[in-house]
Write a structure and sequence with these properties.
Radius of gyration: 18 Å
Number of strands: 12
Strand order of the largest sheet: 2-1-3-4-5
CATH superfamily of the largest domain: Response regulator
Largest sheet: 5 strands, parallel
CATH class of the largest domain: Alpha Beta
Order of helices and strands: EHEHEHEHEHEEEEHEHHEE
Number of helices: 8
Helix content: 40-55%
């Protein structure tokens, strides 16, 4: 029998938390339900789940704070935020604190399950030994490390690593904006697009030591990595 994949769910609304838990369990997941961020951190450290689903507004410790603390321990575990917040700055904060996806309430269980499966499948790529060369940089995709020549390697976030992976795989060709948004963010709405622009800017700064490398914005279409 296959081992159940473990998800940690932090949700302070008991009824909603139970509905999500039972729905995921019917799809073959093991769900660890916690009522606040402090309890979730404790359970995370003890149980080592494969993915976190975090409500943003929780007592004792909110989801953004919890994600920051988890990222100090583990840069690669996928994190999905659940929230009623919809302001652009809230969405961007969710991604910059280490989130991989962001689902606004109310949402359908089918959408949540699709996003969970996408992140878990994407995370499997990191188990593949795959080191890529990009100009004077070496990119260790499984470990999310970017190194320039003999310098100390820079640790990328989960989303930075996957975005760079797709850019390199499509080097000197157009990377369709809508395609990459749906692949990495789960949708191509305005908030996700703004978030991707932030991550593109971060990657440009990390690649600045090699002048031959450029990430060009092809307005209305996508991005092109030139090297």
């Amino acid at each position: 029998m296959n081992k159940l994949r473990t998800i940690l769910l932090a949700e302070d609304e008991p009824a909603l938390g139970q509905i999500i838990k039972e729905s995921l369990e019917t799809r073959g997941f093991k769900v660890l339900l916690c009522e606040n961020g402090a309890k979730a951190l404790e359970v995370y450290q003890k149980e080592k789940p494969e993915l976190l689903v975090l409500d943003v507004m929780m007592p004792i410790k909110d989801g953004f704070t919890l994600a920051k603390e988890v990222r100090v321990i583990d840069e690669t575990i996928p994190i999905i935020f659940l929230t009623a917040k919809s302001q652009t700055q809230d969405v961007v904060e969710g991604f910059t604190t280490g989130g991989n996806d962001y689902l606004k309430k109310p949402f359908s269980m089918e959408e949540l399950i699709v996003r969970i499966n996408n992140l878990l499948n994407r995370n499997q790529l990191q188990k593949i030994t795959h080191t890529l060369k990009l100009g004077d940089y070496t990119f260790n995709f499984p470990k999310q490390l970017l190194q320039y020549k003999g310098n100390d390697p820079s640790q990328l976030t989960h989303r930075e690593a996957h975005l760079l992976f797709h850019l390199i795989k499509n080097k000197n060709a157009l990377l369709d904006r809508s395609l990459i948004l749906n692949t990495l963010w789960g949708n191509d709405d305005f908030f996700s697009a703004r978030s991707m622009d932030v991550f593109i800017s971060k990657l440009r700064k990390k690649l600045i030591l090699d002048a031959s490398i450029q990430i060009i914005n092809v307005r209305g279409y996508g991005y092109k990595l030139i090297c």
